[in-house]
Write a structure and sequence with these properties.
The structure is a homodimer. The first copy, chain A, is an alpha/beta fold. Chain A has two domains: 149 residues, Aspartate Aminotransferase, domain 1; 218 residues, Aspartate Aminotransferase, domain 2 (3-Layer(aba) Sandwich), CATH 3.40.640. Helices cover 44% and strands 14% of the residues of chain A. Chain A contains 13 helices and 13 strands. In chain A, the strands form three sheets. In chain A, strands 2-8-7-6-5-3-4 form a seven-stranded mixed β-sheet, with helices on both faces. The first copy, chain A, has a four-stranded antiparallel β-sheet with strand order 9-10-13-12. Chain A is globular and about 60 Å long. Chains A and B meet through helix 2, helix 4, helix 5, helix 9 and helix 10 of A and helix 2, helix 4, helix 5, helix 9 and helix 10 of B.
Chain lengths: 393, 393
């Protein structure tokens, strides 16, 4: 009855793969390597309760009133201090997913090109599609010349078509889904390309602080603060239930995001912002983050050793230095979407890699999360999945 | 430097009147009749603290994890029970502003027509413009025949242009900005028109439960649940700092909203939803609401009597039976936008009525809020404003 009423604008967007993945899944009833959920063990309940009580005492009714569209000043200042940027460059978002959406909304007209790595984050691709962006995925080639050429070639192709590239979307740290990071050299090349060809970079970095080995690499934003919009999130370093993130960008860009955000939801959740600000200021966030990193490092190491032990030959995987995911590649011809039904029937879930590829390639890949389940369930889940794969390959 | 990078799509939308109104205003430093803020006196701090502690005890980590895109089931059920609708028709939104935005996003293509009353809510008009909707305002004429004819004529005009009406946006209860409500007969007429001409109605009703006199009128949703999307909000009956509202609609419509919401921000704030659900279930919300109604009724009565006492002749105003606003009409030729600078210099703020009129008419009108300020400040503010107006008129 409503079919003719919906916007054509969103088109194929309404066929949501994420929805298909999760609608049949009760995360606690199966072995789920599917979601990007942090472990609930990392949420410091008593410290949160204490902080909430302090916020009510300190701010009273102000903590429950409407707040500024840019975010509560205390939280903007805490983010600005933590990341060494001026406070006028900080906009608080109602989740970093909103950061992605709002950047696309203020920058992209239908048909405009967005460059991404391929694979890239599914939720970003979904948002880009909803604005009818023309998404061009670029494979991450090894070797700096090949890496650079892949982007140059794609950009040249877009220019030849007379189309406009609005931004490059990148997750440089422990990428979702691959778990891989960009080297400093690669970051510099991409920033230089943005300057050269006049597009922006949306640097989405929700996992950046979850590093288990190696040294931090400078953000793309720090390399050139005027062509990069940096998106961050409290979901992985504090708790996703607060739905809080931030965008760091040139004030002229934040100015447009402000107006857009006003029309989206007026302001981010106010009480939650005060809690996050107090949690940061008091040092509780850092203490808790250290514990989370220990926990996740152990789970990553466990998953890597289990894959080594149980996976059939012909299966390869990435070695993430941080974050929540690693990425499996099965032999050519394997179809992870088809296989998903079998896996789910057997009680184990993942996300098929195809959904992360803008061009629908990567059929023989899958993303595995290692943060959500307990160690015991990771062991059982890998054994189950490896057993199913052994029979399939 | 960024001018060519922004979306053309949002166009004039970026010149936000709301922003202009509020950017120079420190709400506590002036007499503000401008915002739509509830009184911070209505936020029951100790009961909220208690409820938060209970939620942490009862739900543990689940209250801080990602939640369902449709909203937390406990809150959906509480809303469904309260308003007598099936739970599968309830979507929790991250504020009712998001409800407006998401309805527009799933329904409207550029150039599609949205009907509204004129005047209508500024934040809705801003959202509609951001999707390049063609907004047609219809004046609220007195007398049922005139009322009906105004809508029929507008609809006929749109049809003659070959354009498609996607929905009628209405605030039937204590409208923002006018404070006026639709009669049952008027509601029935609009619902019948929607059926007849094949468009939907977005019924935005954030003030519905703030009634100070008279009997509740049935919602438009209750008259025809399949052509009406009903939007509600916790901002006026609990606290705006939680940024929570709801959409009640046919499941086929919610299905599209689900996918859109996933791409907007994944899910509403989770902890806040549990708190709202507990607050509702425990009866605390209703007890607190009764106190808020008492408080606001007193402020409305005060404002009405002050206007009577101090306003110069030639100024008229509405008599709202509930809500947060009343609407002033000055003599023809008065310009409330121009006058605003004078008022602000003198220390008193309002919102010029012109911003609520899709066609830019209503220059001699202004909206006054009576919920936010203390009684003492309402008295002082009205005296100041009336004095300024007396010298102007």
């Amino acid at each position: 009855m409503y079919d003719k009423m919906f916007s054509e604008d969103v088109g194929s967007f309404f066929r949501s793969p994420v929805r298909e993945i999760f609608k049949r899944v009760d995360l606690n009833a199966i072995y789920s390597f599917a979601g990007g959920y942090p472990s609930a063990d990392t949420f410091p309940l008593e410290e949160i309760r204490q902080t909430m009580s302090e916020v009510i005492g300190k701010y009273g009714g102000q903590a429950f009133q409407y707040g500024a569209t840019q975010g509560v000043m205390q939280l903007r200042e805490a983010v600005a201090d933590r990341y060494g940027v001026p406070v006028e460059r900080v906009q608080i978002t109602s989740s970093s997913q909103q950061g992605i959406d709002v950047c696309t909304r203020v920058l992209v007209d239908p048909g405009d090109v967005i460059l991404t790595s391929s694979p890239s984050y599914l939720g970003a691709l979904q948002s880009f599609r909803s604005y009818r962006a023309d998404i061009r995925g670029v494979a991450h080639l090894t070797g700096i010349d090949a890496f650079c050429r892949a982007y140059e070639d794609t950009i040249a192709g877009v220019k030849a078509e007379g189309k406009k590239i609005k931004f490059l979307y990148m997750i440089p740290d422990f990428q979702n889904p691959s778990g891989e990071s960009l080297t400093l050299e690669e970051r510099k090349i991409l920033v230089a390309l943005a300057r050269k060809y006049g597009f922006l970079i949306v640097e989405d970095s929700p996992y950046r602080e979850l590093r288990y080995e190696g040294e931090p690499v400078p953000t793309m934003y720090s390399i050139d603060p005027d062509v990069v919009i940096h998106l961050g999130s409290f979901s992985k370093i504090f708790a996703p239930g607060f739905r809080l993130g931030w965008a760091i960008a040139h004030p002229d860009i934040l100015d447009k995001i402000y107006v857009c955000k006003q029309s989206l939801d007026l302001c981010p959740p106010v009480f939650d912002q005060y809690v996050a600000a107090e949690f940061l200021r008091s040092g509780r966030l850092d203490a808790n983050l250290s514990a989370s990193i220990e926990l996740y490092k152990g789970k990553r190491d466990l998953l890597l050793s289990l894959l080594e032990q149980y996976m059939p030959s012909g299966v390869r995987w990435t070695h993430p230095e941080g974050g929540l995911f690693l990425f499996l590649t099965m032999p050519e011809g394997f179809d992870a979407v088809k296989f998903y039904d079998k896996a789910l029937d057997a009680g184990v879930a993942y996300v098929a890699g195809e959904f992360f590829h803008p061009d629908g390639s990567g059929k023989n890949t899958m993303r595995m999360n290692f943060s959500f389940m307990s160690r015991q369930r990771i062991v059982e889940g890998v054994k189950l999945l490896a057993d199913l794969l052994s029979r399939e390959l």
